[in-house]
Write a structure and sequence with these properties.
The complex is a heterodimer.
Chain A: H1 9-15, H2 19-22, H3 27-31, E1 41-46, H4 50-59, E2 65-71, H5 75-84, E3 89-91, H6 94-100, E4 105-108, H7 115-124, E5 128-132, H8 139-152, E6 156-159, H9 166-176, E7 185-191, H10 206-209, H11 220-237, E8 243-249, E9 262-268, E10 274-280, E11 288-294, E12 297-300, E13 305-308, H12 316-329, E14 350-351, H13 361-375, H14 380-402, E15 406-407
Parallel strand pairs in A: 1-2, 1-4, 2-3, 4-5, 5-6, 7-10
Antiparallel strand pairs in A: 7-11, 8-9, 8-15, 9-10, 11-12, 12-13, 13-14
Helix pairs in contact in A: 7-8, 11-14
Chain B: H1 8-36, H2 42-45, H3 47-77
Helix pairs in contact in B: 1-3
Amino acid sequence: MSEPRPLSRRDFLTQVSWVAAAAPWFVPLMTTSAYAQDEPIRVGLVGVGSRGTKLLLHLQTIPGVVVAAVCDNYSPNLVDAARRADGARRFTDYRALLDAQEVDALVIATPPSSHADISCAAMRTGCDVFCEKVMALTIEDCDRMMRVRQETGRRLQIGFQRLFDVRYVAAIEAVRAGRIGPITHMKAHWHRNDDWRRPVRDPRLERQINWRLYRDLSGGPIAELAAHQIVTSNWILGERPSRMTGFGGVNFWKDGRETHDNASVMFEYPGGALLTQTSLLSNRRDGVVEQVIGPEGSIELEAGRYFPEAVPPSPAIVQLLRDLKMGLLRTVPLGGPSWVTPEGSEASGSYLVDDARIPSPTQLELEVFVNSVRTETSLPELLNESYRASLAVVLANRAVDEGRVVAWAEAGSP
Amino acid sequence: MKAIVISSERLRREAQVFMLCVVSALCVNALSIAYYETSWVELITSFPITFLLSIVAYLSSLVVRGLSTFFFRRRDSA
């Protein structure tokens, strides 16, 4: 059997045009050519650390995009980015970059605490904005970004790349086709085993480099990790949680950090479905898993695999051998049938999309952004998903911090 | 060094025993298909498993026949 070839743009646009039903934000890719180079889009990047550099590399592969400026207040990152983006002007302050008025769009990959200020300033100077997730760390800042976008009419896109993952779109299609029945539960975890620290040569730069460990700069694992899974839950269920609660703390990396190294949060949706999510920095065995569960089956989103509850029976001869073995070796429960532990299914599931042919979600989200800038298309559904997820992150952190159940009404948003 | 000679008669008998094992395994598969109410196509699709069972049955028969020959010879020589 021949190896599946990578999914080309043409494949993507023609063969998976069904994505528009579940993810209308793909429309700019389908209705316009991504190769229009007559009017180059001049893009500036603010924050060119690890994520910013990744975005830079993706942007450089998009035809018609010129990386015109890079900005960072940490000089090693700035030098490295300027080396990669030949010809781009260097800035150490985003305000100077905006004052120069040399870019059409701004890509922001700074700590979340600065997202609102930079985004709002950029939109007020006439720039369209792509800002990494989460929108902001407070409801007021999220609302401010939405308000400025409304006032200026600029485009604002938040970098939740899972919204551009074809596997997730296929999962939504499967859910809507009734393959798992009504969603009753969603289970997600993001487990890793590292301290999330980066080496710091000068102690004065500690907060600047290790911003993820400080609460006034970062929302911790709930904002950095769980946010990706909250946005997909909202998207798949088509609604935002009605209330949430959780716990979190530092139980392993006791190095003076302020953000959690373990957190477990639970979200209840209006229809009754629950999302349970755990983030852990001290064990990676389970990795990243997102499961959508219903009475007819379940779907592992990140793997794009579908597991029907009704598993096709094994061949009769296999059943016979299994029954003979069970008859000879089975364990006899002492307390009757209710004491028998239910066994999970051993079915390996089936893939919803050919894994080898999935385009990079980050590449797609940037292409959609560039095309929406070029065609002046607004993507309200996309922004709404990002806004709701960002609010849910703020409220979940509040629930953990205050040890209580927090209702969505506290966000002051419908 | 003594040459090991397997007679054609012996070979034919072993082939017959193995065929008997194959047919028996196929019968077991047919009975299990009827019992578990699965598709009769499994007579073909499950043939690798059936064939494996035939080999297991043949090897078992070799052990049984070898042991019985050993004990009968000892009794005759006693």
